[in-house]
Amino acid sequence: MPSGQAAARPRSTSQAGRRPGARSRSDRRFFVLAALPAFIVVFLVTIVPLAAALGLSFTSYTSANPVASWAGLRNYRLLFSDPNVPTVLLVTLLFAVAAVVLEALIGTILALLMARKMRGVSVYRVLYLIPLMVAGIAAAVSWKALLDTSAGWVNSILGVFGIPQANWLASPTLALPSVVIADIWTGAPIVAVLVLAALLGMPEDPLEAARIDGASQLQVVRYIILPAIRPVLGFAVIFRTVDVFRQFGLIQILTGGGPGTKTTTLNYYIYQTVFTYGNISYGSTLAVLLIVAMAIPLGVIYLLTRRREI
Amino acid sequence: MGSVRSRKRRVVAAALAVACLALAACSSSSSSGGSTSAPASAAAAKQITVWTASNPLYDYQKSQLGLFTKDTGISVNFQEIPEASILTKLQAAQTAHDSSFDFYEVPASLTPQYVSLKGAAPIKPFLNNTSLTPSNYDFAGLPPGSMTQCTVKGTLYCVPAFGTGPLLYYNKQMFAQAGISGPPQTMQALVTDAGKLTNSSHAGICLRGSNTAPNSFPAQMMLLYYLNYQPNGQGIWLNPDYTPRLTEPAALQFANNYSTLMTKDAPKGVGAYGYPECLAAMQNGKVAMWLDDSAAASYVFNSQGPAVAHVGYASIPCPATNPSKCQLSAPWGMFINQNSDAAHQTAAYKLMTFLSGPAFQQGALTNGKIPALVTRPSVLSSASSVEGIPSDLLTSLNYIQTHIDPNAIPQTSVFNQAQQPLNVALSDIISGQSSPDNAFKTANSQITAILKQSGVIQ
After folding, report:
1. Is the CB of A65 inside 8 Å of chain B's CB atoms?
2. In terms of Cα–Cα distance, which of A262, A236, A68 is closest to A177?
3. CA–CA gap between residue B240 and residue B242 (Å, rounded)
């Protein structure tokens, strides 16, 4: 149609009076309404329990007396007088730092190895990612069998080489490192998968250019690859930090929080308080503490990652 | 027109969302039922649902349900739930007043909890109904000591599902090799013998050491031999006013003996041992003695372990400080769900009388070879020997049932929480993180704080 004639053509009555962008606004409203049921469900299963826990933390509510009577700040005062709280916070911090740092390191190294172009690399990828396919509880039971002091495979192999057999799960010095090692077995492949995806999506040109300029492999990794994958690595660290704070099955199966309270993290202590001792209101208070305790390191990690991007 | 149409769409979408929520709310509230009037006089339902733990003890119950159905016409949906999760599941179900099950089996020590949640129906109205209770049921034949944990403020809410107590499993061959003529007759002798029996090929004794086992269970069995019995005591190590007794000389002596046993005479790594590890160690000849619940007996004599043929069974006689009530019995109880309707409660009661009646227990002993299911001393004492069951085991089980401490577990749910410092203290003793005296003194003060905070101690 020759130009100029389109403007002269009368507009249809359905379009009469409609402003530019009005159709997309109507579509946006429809999309919002269509998403509303899903939003309501997510709201109900996340915000509502959170609000309920916060509310319960100001009450006295136990399994033996399931009536939520107002208790004010009593549970929060108990947080400061409970001798277990500093211990479980310290255990949680040690566990989180050790597990996340080692998982990030080992996962990144694994990803760098799996990103290489070599014959049979797909086989290695499958092998290294097998832990991801194993259910958490199954992994925990397997590790318990491996680390058993008298009948475990680890001590049996150590015995063959004449190395002293350690009391992995019942020693106050070795119990937490044992839990960390078991957590790394599943956590490092998760980091590796995320970093590998970032590596495979990287453009080849900067790497080629660096190699042509004579950079060593270590320099390529340090000055090109790591800065490029930093956002993904930051996300992986945040993801693993949340998971480590939430870790329960491994501790329950391997050590039960013992010996003493040497492997009792805050999350495990919440479980004990609510389900073993039936003190639901105090458990809710501990859950609030857990959220605060998680928010601090996550905020720090996020800020560190963000600042570097700027 | 366009804006009217889009407004209509908004209204329809919002109405759909509200309808979904209302439907969800209605379906969740429809699960609550409950009988409020005269359940003991209603006709029985034709099918009931049982929740119990997946445990070989209950496999025998399941095997006999065909007989129950034949006798009563009531079919049973028998659901076995992993032992590690049944309590959590039941807690949630009781809180929600769930009526999808009618009969359940859980630790009798949790009776106060389920009563407060209105999830346990009183038993007496059914017992008093002569048309429901079989004439040969013999309620008086159930040991009063084991019924104490089923009773809250004078009202009975359950009957014991099995009868157990502390039993000493010992390897006769190892005893003979060490020059010991028979099982120890006192706790001090137990400690001495454990030292003599420990060598490079096997440990002297196994006790559960893990926090989650819990390690306090066998420890409390032993404490009853150290602390003097108090008729009005509130539990093994609590005074009548609920103040803990862990700093008494007798308790500290126990702590030191416990330390000797667990650091010198127990298997390496015992701090992580639970019931299965000690059982395996006994079956395989890795330990000379194992003190634990008598419910494990059928797993020992019915198993194929290399040391099984040498295992003997003994009860350590009660000490002078506690001559007739030194046995800690913490059975599971059979409960009727108060949230079920009257017909289902009646049917559940019929199952309760079947499973706790003399005929079933006689069958469990002679045919099932599961003495743990026998709660009636009359059944145990009438069988001086049963083929396939060691006679010393029968003698020991009879001793347990006739010497139960009725006050061992106080009727307060905060006792569970109060045990946590004891679990930690025992764990610290085993791992050497604390001396026995310091560990018990710390536990004592923490327990006092917990009981004060909950209002149990004024």
Report:
1. yes
2. A262
3. 5
Q: Which of B399, B427, B444 is the last residue of a domain?
A: B399
Which range, of A134-143, B33-42, B81-90, B371-380, averages the lowest pLDDT? B33-42
Judgement on whether residues B125 and B235 belong to the same structural domain of the protein = no
Q: Which tokens belong to B300?
A: 């020992």
Tell me how far the alpha carbon of residue A112 is from its chain's centroid.
Answer: 21
Radius of gyration over alpha carbons of chain A, in Å? Answer: 27
- Asked if B139 and B175 sit in the same domain, the reply is no
Residues B340 and B322 in one domain: no
- B110 lies in the same domain as B156: yes
What does the pLDDT look like over A108-120, one tens digit per residue? Answer: 999 998 888 888 8
Contact between chains at A276 and B431 (C-beta distance less than 8 A)? no
Asked if residue B389 is part of any domain, the answer here is yes
Picking from A148, A165, A256, the nearest residue to B211 by CB comes out as A256
Backbone φ, ψ for residue B132 (5° rounding)? -100, -35
- A169, B432: Cβ pair inside 8 Å? no
- Reported as a single tens digit per residue, the pLDDT across A177-223 is 999 999 999 999 999 999 999 998 888 888 888 888 888 888 888 88
Percent of chain B with pLDDT over 70: 90
Q: At what angle do helices A280-309 and A22-56 cross, to 10 degrees?
A: 140
What are the C-alpha distances in Å from B77 to residues B62, B361, B437? 10, 21, 51
Q: Are B311 and B284 in contact (CB under 8 A)?
A: no
Query: Using DSSP, how many helices (H) and how many strands (E) does chain A show?
Result: 14, 2
Question: What is the span of the domain harbouring residue B261?
Answer: 166-326+412-453
Instruction: For helices B414-431 and B216-223, give the axis angle rounded to 10 degrees.
Output: 90
Q: Which of B424, B428, B434, B450 to mutate to test the interface with A (most CBs of A within 10 A)?
A: B424
Task: Determine how β-strand B332-336 pairs with β-strand B103-107.
Answer: antiparallel
Q: Nearest to residue A253, comparing CAs of A88, A93, A142?
A: A142
d(C-alpha A81, C-alpha B384), whole Å: 56
Residues B175 and B81 in one domain: no
Q: Tell me, yes or no, if A14 comes closer than 8 A to chain B by beta carbon.
A: yes
On whether residue B344 sits in a domain, the answer given is: yes
Domain count, chain B: 2
Cβ atoms within 10 Å of B430's Cβ, excluding its own: 29
Q: Are residues B289 and B361 in the same domain?
A: no
| Cα-based torsion angle of the residue sequence A225, A231, A237, A242 in order, rounded to the nearest 10 degrees | -160
0.95 surpassed by complex ipTM? no
CB atoms within 10 A of CB A293: 19
Residue pointed to by tokens 């298997």 = B267
CA pair distance B393, B384, nearest whole angstrom: 10
Q: Measured between CA atoms, how close is B271 to chain A, in angstroms?
A: 5
Predicted TM-score (pTM) of this structure: 0.80
In a domain, residue B1? The reply is: no
> Considering only alpha carbons, which residue of chain A is nearest residue B89?
A275
For A112, residues 6+ apart whose C-beta sits below 8 A from its C-beta are: A195, A199, A221, A225
Considering CB atoms only, which of B14, B20, B433 is closest to A260? B433
A118, B190, B310, B317 from B185: Cα distances, Å: 71, 8, 19, 6
Which DSSP string do the residues of A41-57 spell out, in sequence order? Answer: HHHHHHHHHHHHHHHHT
Whether residue B288 sits in one domain with residue B225: yes
Q: How far apart are CA A42 and CA B275, in angstroms?
A: 42
Task: Kindly state the tokens that stand for B188.
Answer: 């001090």
Q: Do B157 and B108 have their domain in common?
A: yes
Q: Is B105 a member of any domain? A: yes
- Taking each helix axis from N to C end, the angle separating B2-29 and A22-56, rounded to the nearest 10 degrees, works out to 20
Contact B112 A64 (CB under 8 A): yes
- Using CB atoms within 10 Å of the CB of residue A209, give its burial: 0 to 12 exposed, 13 to 18 middle, 19+ buried: exposed
